[in-house]
UniProtKB/TrEMBL annotation:
PROSITE patterns the record matches: AA_TRNA_LIGASE_I
Motif position, 'HIGH' region: 31-41
Protein source organism: Saccharospirillum salsuginis
Source taxonomy: Bacteria, Pseudomonadati, Pseudomonadota, Gammaproteobacteria, Oceanospirillales
Broadest EC class assigned to this enzyme: ligase
UniProt catalytic activity: tRNA(Gln) + L-glutamine + ATP = L-glutaminyl-tRNA(Gln) + AMP + diphosphate
Gene (UniProt): glnS
Protein name: Glutamine--tRNA ligase
GO biological process: glutaminyl-tRNA aminoacylation; glutamyl-tRNA aminoacylation
Length: 556
């Protein structure tokens, strides 16, 4: 346990442990298995699992699987993988709200027997009318005063499948005049004649989230039920059920501000639309704010956890600038990503003063500040590739403005020779296809001889020993700060330049055995990751994680 609470939730937990209210804390992370987890869930995972770790407690994973219409095993598997990838582990086996369906049904019967629940036959439009508004109280349902016996019979028939979907529901009997809309006789059970991924066709009625959540917490002995602020108005209902039922424990709900990030959409419905309409290439497309998408983009678990710490946990809402996440990503990769060289737009350089079979090998550190990352070998041959943008024919360009190679001048190759550009070869369209140059002997690891003034340092890769690669340049998916606000269709704000695919790229041969999800810093290009799905033997696919510095502000 830390010496100092890290946020208001930690302060509450510390006080509860010190007072003896709890001997051990138990938290839970309760996702709905109806989509992939996104960056907001990552924050919640860090809060719930992190607090349990901080105070020597435990955290459950419980799937809130009360709506079989939208739930799939694929989502369950992805959620478990995401949590483990972030570095967290839940107590025991994963749990499901469906584990408690029998008990929840019995508790619904308990409410009916005590006169606290009734079967209501209002249709959706009628129920909406009877519910009232934020400024006007609701009206009691005409079915509210049914007898216990009639309600028990109707609820049994609901369970047995005698009614159609939407024909009736079970509602709690609380207060239709309450200023809190959640207490206006909320729905406890709905009819859904759908097979469930855990319970099969056993049930055709399913509990609501508000009814199932607190009781599941109580059954699991959750001490601190932590959720986001939009559930604050649900807390009185949470407590009402706990007080009305013979639950084995009395959990308490606490709320913190959800994570909102600009230039980002986190609505599962909208994310699913991006997938279903083919705007992105699946839930794990590297442009998606899903955890699996960020993973494929090359964002590390450490960077996401650091970002969650930077954002902090409080009750104050607001929107976090995406630049804060990008800062956390760069900080992490700058410290941990090995260095390499890659040429994304190759231009051949032929050294006329070297024999055709020339080959020598230079070494370079894997990282300038990390001896543990070792060294890498850089084969140097008669022909190399440099980036097309690193050469210009115009030798009148200012050295201050263009610090790369120009015709008739010198430049140093990173970890290798100083070279001199002598001649350019062009095709029939006037485009440069080759530079002819000379190496300056004795300049490897040495100062330039007198009279030789290299403009700068550029990266390169051997033409014969470099590895071909496909490189995918990813940028922000949306070009509007708040793409899903203001009534506009959020798809209007899709960034048309969010993906650019480069073929014919060349990377240094040290990447030959790079494992999927390995990250590298390519000099002057940014941070890249080996694609975890599409890289195969002889087919290297690299995704751009982020640039070396923020350039977005100059592009919009």
């Amino acid at each position: 346990m830390s010496d100092k609470p890290s946020n208001f939730l930690a302060t509450i937990i510390e006080e509860d442990l010190a007072s003896g209210k709890h001997d051990q804390i138990v938290t839970r992370f309760p996702p709905e298995p109806n989509g992939y987890l996104h960056i907001g869930h990552a924050k919640s995972i860090c809060v719930n699992f992190g607090l349990a770790q901080q105070f020597g407690g435990e955290c459950n994973l419980r799937f809130d699987d009360t709506n079989p219409e939208k739930e799939e095993q694929e989502y369950i598997d992805s959620i478990k993988a995401d949590i483990n990838w972030l570095g967290f582990h839940w107590k025991g086996r994963e749990k499901y709200t469906s584990d408690y369906f029998d008990q929840l049904y019995d508790w619904a019967v308990h409410l009916i027997n005590n006169g606290d629940a009734y079967v209501c036959h209002l249709n959706a439009d009628e129920a909406r009318e009877y519910r009232g508004t934020l400024t006007e109280p609701g009206k009691n349902s005409p079915y509210r005063d049914r007898s216990v016996e009639e309600n028990l019979d109707l609820f049994t028939r609901m369970k047995n499948g005698e009614f159609a979907e939407g024909e009736c529901v079970l509602r709690a009997k609380i207060d239709m005049a309450s200023p809190n809309m959640n207490l206006r006789d909320p729905i406890i059970y709905r009819i859904r004649k759908k097979e469930h991924h855990q319970t099969g066709d056993k049930w055709c009625i399913y509990p609501s989230y508000d009814f199932a959540h607190g009781q599941s917490d109580a059954l699991e002995g959750i001490t601190h039920s932590i959720c986001t602020l939009e559930f604050e108005d649900h807390r009185p209902l949470y407590d009402w059920f706990i007080d009305k039922l013979p639950v084995p424990a009395k959990p308490r709900q606490y709320e913190f501000a959800r994570l909102n990030v600009n230039y980002t959409v986190t609505s599962k419905r909208k994310l699913k639309r991006l997938v279903d309409e083919g705007i992105v290439d699946g839930w794990d497309d590297p442009r998606m704010p899903t955890i699996s998408g960020m993973r494929r983009r090359g964002i590390t678990p450490r960077a996401l956890r650091n970002f969650a710490d930077m954002v902090g946990t409080s009750r104050a809402g607001g929107v976090v600038d995406l630049g804060m996440l990008e800062f956390a990503i760069r900080e992490d990769l700058n410290e941990n990503a090995p260095r390499a060289m890659a040429v994304l737009d190759p231009l051949k350089v032929v050294f006329t003063n070297l024999p055709d079979d020339h080959r020598e090998v230079f070494t370079a550190p894997g990282h300038p500040n990390r001896d543990d990352l070792g060294e890498r070998e850089l084969p140097f041959t008669k022909e190399i590739y440099i980036d097309r943008s690193d050469f210009n024919e115009d030798n009148t360009l200012s050295r201050k403005k263009f610090k790369r190679l120009v015709l008739g001048e010198w430049v140093r190759l990173r970890n290798a020779y100083i070279i001199h550009a002598d001649e350019v070869i062009k095709d029939d369209n006037g485009e440069i296809v080759e530079i002819r140059a000379k190496v300056i002997e004795g300049t490897v690891g040495a100062d330039a001889p007198e009279g030789v003034r290299p403009r700068g340092v550029i990266h390169w890769v051997s033409a014969s020993e470099g590895l071909p690669a496909e490189v995918r340049l990813y940028d922000r998916l949306f070009n509007h700060e708040t793409p899903d606000r203001g009534g506009d269709d959020f798809l209007r704000h899709i960034n048309p330049e969010s993906l650019k695919v480069l073929t014919g790229c060349i990377v240094e041969p040290s990447l030959a055995d790079a494992a999927p999800e390995s990250s590298f810093q390519f000099e002057r290009e940014g941070y890249f990751v080996v694609d975890r799905h599409e890289t195969k033997a002889g087919q290297l696919v690299l995704n751009k994680t982020i640039g070396l510095k923020e350039v977005w502000a100059r592009k919009v």
